[in-house]
Write a structure and sequence with these properties.
3% of the residues lie in helices and 51% in strands. It has 3 helices and 48 strands. It is globular.
């Protein structure tokens, strides 16, 4: 008998939950006690303390994690220190199994963040949104650019899983990542951090609290983080790959004029200079493609051949498989520490800034009014030449490649992005009788502009002996010459512009949520959010055609400006029950949606609609063994409608055929099913064991894709072929797990101690592109730290902590992003004179091999922190 994955999941969940509930179902809800009695099967240890209470703000108020009916993981200050987390990208090792962090392409300047299988492939476009909301102190960040900036003084990172559409709004289908900063204390003190490590790394920080004066408290945070290149660039004077240098400054002023009023104003600026991770060639022609004939007589594809593009039905192929350039290295096993061919590479620059004012007025025990006002922005100049000779175009090295006319290669991906956003949120939070409530109004206004160019930066010069090519030399070649002079960006300055766009997004929302504490044990929550989104955008350039001046070409290419408005109501209902004082269960129905937009990578600025998700979740949160153990489990079923998927294909236009990335809504429902479990145990004083696991099943239904037939002049013939294209959820392992061991050994009667930390993180292999079945590698990363903590300095309050840390201790190398687009035929883009160009003929002319990115190798170092 066959059972569906959804039925098997429900069976497994039902058994797991029933077993845990059974252990405490007969216990009546207990009144809170200052000192709970020890469990009968676990005698209390004298002096033994239970696990610390974890406070979260997932419901817009401070609550105990264990009593909050939301699946949440928290990375606190100590974990950030133990794992040597300097930026969000350092969470890519899998500290939270259901949270996935990856770079867009090889660039450190933009991060892809996903939770529970909601992962955008290309939110790098100005008119496209993320699927997981990222917040800093309650302020939503509209772009994924600049997310890899240095973290300031972070109190905790809350990972809120599942749709958060009611309280957090649009673009939180998968959940929300909430970064909470430490607030001013009004008492003089602080700390100074510093450290050094391999790869030429160093970091430093100062975190200063000033004493309160006239009800004003001030906190200042400054940080710097540096790492030399991981992979050397052989071209003299050019930056290597995997380099970063981050600097940031943040100031916070807290004003408390009277009891009940708190007003926090903060301002921050940061600058991140970085280079992309090296993209190396992992194999050569892995599909075994053959050189074909001419376009008029394509070579038939052998039966069973892997040389076919997913979602197509090629009748044959054409084009010649070119040999590798001399000196190109194929290495799919380990990270190359020196690139095979040096290329021009400048440092990308991300500059972020923000101003936030958070006002809270506790009018009475029944109501607190809040206002969160924020201006934020990011500027990015991207310089990405990480692929070198491993990306198209593939050079046909012949005697015609001369010093006077080098054959061009090494695609330099240049881009500029400028974003400004303003947001205003009003909240009312309180309790009236047995009702807890949250109500709010929200406004968001964002303007984004971008441009991009991809010139060749290197030239190959053939070495010819007696008419035979025997080798090659490689030289940088001038690029961006003779191009459009009327559009100037810092990175794209003077280049032939692939695309440029401008977008304005506005969002208005009203929301409310009520929790009825029906009894001491039963809590029923209902809420909803109404959102109105308006998005207006223009494509200013496409393939170096200025659409604002050349309106005839824009019209011929089917271009339409984006002017769309969407409305949504996102409800949520939760029933929570306290089976005892230490066992809390809940069942939850929640919805969310991601706004629509348009693809600036298409010549017609093709629009796409929002996608919507419905989620059904059950969970159990338990404390046992006299609060020395904690086990939480959640299971969910999510259905996503109108999934936004990307298809890389050829788009015939009136001004020529070109490669593009079309974003459209897949019909049917995408299924996402999962289980998450977390176990924390403190078996003896000082020792804490943690284990986390996430199972995520995803299935995007096959999408009918229609390929039309065109003549060599780009005129449609009326013939078409429709094939089913399979799509995948990227960067989402079926199984992922993380575990850690922490031990604190006190030294004498002081606060000093020796701390040991070790964590291990595993993730199954995943796809990196949603239209390719090709997977990257599974990963297993181990990190550790040993420190002498809180050692007294003299007779004052000064204390010092010394530590030695290591990331990826076993120096494991794995490919986290594998790109097969250069391994497979492209759809035919040229035809012989008078012969129709049928796109179901494959072109092998640019086949080379998979290229991709390895994780960072082992890093280690020493650090010290002085508290005063």
């Amino acid at each position: 008998m066959r059972t569906s994955s959804g039925f098997r999941l429900r069976l497994l969940l039902g058994g797991a939950l029933a077993a845990v509930i059974a252990s405490g179902a007969h216990a009546a809800p207990a009144a809170p006690a200052a000192d709970p009695a020890p469990a009968a099967d676990a005698p209390a240890v004298e002096g033994m303390q239970g696990l610390d209470e974890i406070v979260v703000t997932a419901t817009k108020r401070e609550t105990n994690l264990q009593k909050t009916p939301v699946s949440i993981s928290v990375v606190d200050t100590q974990q950030i220190k133990d794992r040597h987390v300097q930026s969000l990208y350092d969470l890519a090792d899998g500290a939270v199994p259901s949270l996935r962090v990856a770079t867009f392409e090889a660039r450190q300047s933009a991060l892809t963040i996903g939770i529970r299988g909601i992962v955008p492939l290309d939110a790098n476009q100005p008119a496209r949104e993320q699927g997981v909301g990222v917040y800093i102190d309650g302020v939503y960040l509209g772009r994924q650019h600049g997310l890899n900036a240095a973290l300031f003084d972070v109190e905790r990172v809350e990972v809120l899983k599942g749709p958060q559409g009611t309280l957090f709004g649009r673009n939180t289908e998968g959940g929300a990542l909430s970064i909470v900063s430490k607030a001013p204390t009004g008492v003089f003190g602080g700390r100074i951090d510093g450290g050094i490590g391999n790869l030429g790394s160093y970091n430093g920080g100062i975190h200063l609290d000033l004493p309160s004066v006239a009800n004003f408290s001030v906190k200042i945070d400054g940080v710097i983080q540096h790492q030399d290149a991981v992979t050397k660039n052989p071209l003299e004077g050019q930056a290597g790959f995997g380099y970063f240098n981050r600097k940031g400054l943040r100031g916070t002023v807290r004003w408390q004029p009277i009891d009940g009023i708190t007003n926090d104003f903060s301002a921050d600026v940061a600058r991140d200079e970085n280079t992309p991770f090296y993209s190396q060639l992992l194999n050569y022609n892995p599909a075994g493609c053959l050189s074909g004939g001419t376009n008029a007589a394509p070579l038939a594809i052998p039966a069973g051949s892997a040389c076919t593009l997913p979602g197509t039905a090629f009748t044959g192929t054409s084009g010649t498989i070119k040999p590798l350039l001399p000196g190109v290295v194929v290495n799919g096993d380990s990270l190359m520490r020196t690139a095979d061919i040096g290329v021009p590479q400048k440092k990308s620059v991300d500059k972020t800034h923000g101003f936030t004012n958070t006002f809270k007025w506790k009018i009475s025990p029944e109501i607190e009014l809040r206002s969160i006002t924020a201006w934020r922005g990011v500027d990015v100049q991207q310089w990405d030449n990480s692929g070198g000779a491993h990306r198209v175009p593939v050079v046909n090295l012949t005697a015609a490649c001369t010093a006077a006319a080098p054959c061009g290669f090494s695609r330099y991906s240049l881009a500029d992005l400028h974003q400004d956003q303003f947001s205003q949120e009003f909240q009312a939070v309180g309790t009236v009788g047995s009702i807890d409530y949250v109500a709010g109004l929200y406004y968001f206004n964002e303007r984004v502009s971008d441009d991009a160019a991809t010139p060749n930066s290197m030239g190959a010069i053939a070495t010819v002996n007696n008419g035979v090519v025997t080798g090659a030399t490689y030289v940088p070649i001038p690029f961006c010459t003779g191009s459009t002079p009327d559009f100037v960006g810092e990175a794209v300055n003077g280049c032939s512009i692939d695309r440029a766009s401008e977008v304005r997004s506005r969002s208005y929302a009203a929301y409310g949520q009520l929790t009825w504490n029906a009894t001491d044990a039963l809590h029923i929550t209902a809420g909803g959010r109404y959102t109105k989104d308006k998005k207006e955008g223009i494509l200013t350039y496409s393939r170096n055609i200025n659409y604002q001046t050349n309106t005839a070409a824009a019209t011929a290419n089917g271009y339409k400006p984006l002017d769309k408005t969407w409305n949504r109501f996102n409800p949520m209902v939760t029933v929570a029950y306290d089976f005892s004082d230490t066992i809390h269960g809940y069942a939850k129905y929640a919805t969310g949606y991601r706004a629509g937009g348009a693809s600036s990578r298409t010549s017609n600025y093709q629009a796409f609609n929002p996608e919507d998700v419905k989620s059904y979740e059950v969970g159990l949160k338990t404390d046992f063994w006299n609060h020395r153990a904690r086990f939480n489990i959640a299971g969910y079923i999510m259905d996503r409608k109108d999934s936004q998927v990307d298809l890389s294909t050829i788009q015939p236009t009136a001004t020529g055929n070109f490669n593009n990335l079309v974003t459209f809504n897949a019909p049917g429902n995408t299924k996402i099913r999962g289980i998450e479990a977390d176990l924390t145990v403190a078996p003896v004083e000082g020792l804490t064991l943690n284990a986390s696991y996430a199972y995520t099943y995803t299935n995007v239904p096959a999408v009918p894709v229609t390929y039309r037939e065109f003549t060599s002049a780009g005129v449609p013939t009326g013939n078409a072929t429709t094939v089913n294209q399979k799509f995948y959820i990227v960067f989402t392992p079926r199984n992922a797990a993380s575990g850690s061991i922490d031990y604190k050994l006190p030294l004498g009667n002081s606060d000093a101690s020796v701390r040991f930390h070790l964590d291990a993180n595993y993730a199954q292999a995943t796809q990196a592109f949603d239209q390719f079945a090709t997977k990257a590698d599974a990963s297993f990363i181990v990190n550790g730290r040993i420190s002498f903590a809180d050692v007294q300095l003299g007779s004052g309050n000064q204390k010092v902590t010394f530590g030695i840390w290591g990331r990826n201790l076993f120096n494991k190398h794995y490919v986290y992003r594998r790109d097969p687009s250069n391994s497979l035929p492209a759809v035919q883009t040229a035809a012989a004179a008078g012969v129709p160009n049928i796109v179901l003929v494959g072109n092998n002319s640019n086949i080379l091999g998979d290229y991709g990115n390895f994780n960072t190798p082992r890093t280690f170092g020493l650090d010290a922190t002085v508290h005063f």
